[in-house]
Structure formats: C-alpha cells, structure tokens
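Look over this entry.
=====
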Amino acid sequence: MDEIRIVAELEVLPEHREAMLPAFRAMVEASRAEAGNRAYDLTEDLENPCRFFILEAWASDAAIAEHNASAHFKAFGDFQKDKLARKRVTLLRPVC
C-alpha cells in the first residue's frame, strides 16, 4: 500500500501545556526511530499556543499498526488522556 500521512490535532488544556511539551518531544523522537516512519513533526498553532498538530508520514498500514502498538505510543496516550480539550486524527493518502 502507498504511503499514508496523518494529521493529528491536539488542543491541550492551558494548565497542562508545559507538562505536555516533554511528552510530545519524547513521542516525536521515538516515532522518528521507527522503521516504517518517513516523517514525524510536531507543530504549534501560531495563534493558539495550546493547539498542536503532529504531521506524520508512514510507509504502510502495517507501519501505522506497529506504531499504534508501540510502548511509547501507548504511554503517550495514557499521559495525555486528561490533558486535552480536543483531539482529531485524520488519515490521508497523497494524490500526486
């Protein structure tokens, strides 16, 4: 299957922003080291410093499944559970 891209939008509750930054950095570092990862970038909304986007590119569905089953992904999920005001994940496929 072709490369799959993901845009994950996470809006952090203001009182948890500083606590989330090291968790985001750890997630980025560990995810970039995965065999099926092609890109994993954390970006911040210029107008809302509590709104983050993770821009991901994966080699395949299998690579995403491995990522989702990884210890660092599960740990991040547990850590952020009560710290977000909003979470939206969109899977995309390049067209051209």
